[in-house]
Write a structure and sequence with these properties.
Elements (H helix, E strand, L loop, with lengths): L16 E6 L2 E5 L1 H6 L13 H4 L9 E4 L5 E10 L5 E13 L2 E10 L1 H23 L4 E5 L4 E4 L1 H7 L3 H5 L10 H14 L1 E10 L5 E13 L2 E10 L1 H6 L1
Antiparallel strand pairs: 1-2, 1-6, 3-4, 4-5, 5-6, 7-8, 7-11, 9-10, 10-11
């Protein structure tokens, strides 16, 4: 027979765990709760002290969300310990409900260990990419189809004289001594799909000019068509010539 709780929800069909406890003792749990916590059956949870099963980190802060006039629930991400000693990360919703005529605490939780690991791996990968990107010895920038800067490395900042924040507020046209040069570059990009060793005169924030070779490619980033440009200052070489 399918259990329902509360409001006739078929809890055994839910993928996330549900447990109810009062005065520190578990009164109800569904099969998903037992599975997530590593127990063979729900029976091994019932009447057990909740703090023996749910090991919360006291330093974790939860976020309260109000609904209705009086009720509220809290959302949090916590570290729990399964019965086999394995640490898992869970997303938890906690609220007060009425159960068998009494006000009790209900928690709904899901195992997000894999998701959090993926997020950490992605963040680490992004950090490694950013370190490499910022330390490449040539200026690199990505702009959208309107010429707005999406990202630029430290060498662009050093070469152009604009800060990262300032680059976010200007158009790529601003870096060219002759704005028409940018138009010619875009026309060539549209025709060939890429640009190699295109010589142009660029302008720094202080108004000084320098000669550069520009490589540019059209890429798709996050579903958006963007331009990836690299710039090599060849002013000294041209002056020597």
């Amino acid at each position: 027979m399918t259990k329902t709780f509360p409001n006739s929800i078929p809890v055994e069909s839910l993928y996330y765990g549900i447990a109810v406890y009062e005065k520190g003792k578990i009164l109800f749990a569904n099969e998903a709760a037992a599975r997530i916590l590593g127990h063979d059956s729900v029976d091994s949870l019932i009447e057990k002290p909740s703090n023996h099963i749910i090991h919360r980190d006291p330093g974790i802060k939860s976020r309260k969300v109000k609904y209705g006039d009086e009720r509220s629930f809290s959302l949090s991400e916590e570290s729990w310990v399964r019965i086999d000693g394995k640490m898992i990360e869970v997303e938890v919703v906690t609220c007060l409900v009425e159960y068998q005529g009494n006000d009790v605490t209900q928690i709904m939780f899901s195992d997000i260990t894999d998701r959090k690991r993926t997020e950490r791996d992605l963040k680490a990968s992004e950090e490694r990419y950013r370190i490499l990107f910022d330390n490449v010895p040539i200026p690199i920038a990505i702009t959208n189809s309107e010429g707005e800067f999406i990202i630029a490395n430290n060498r662009i900042v050093e070469t152009s004289g604009y800060t990262t924040t300032e680059l976010q507020s200007i158009n790529a046209d601003t870096l060219y001594a002759d704005p028409d040069t940018r138009i010619k570059i875009l026309e060539k990009l549209e025709l060939d799909g890429y640009l190699r060793d295109y010589e142009a005169v660029l302008r720094r924030k202080d108004g000084s000019r320098y000669i550069a070779l520009i490589d540019e490619d059209i890429l798709v980033l996050g579903g958006e068509i963007v331009n990836l440009a690299t710039i090599r200052d060849i002013t000294r070489q041209r002056v020597a010539d």
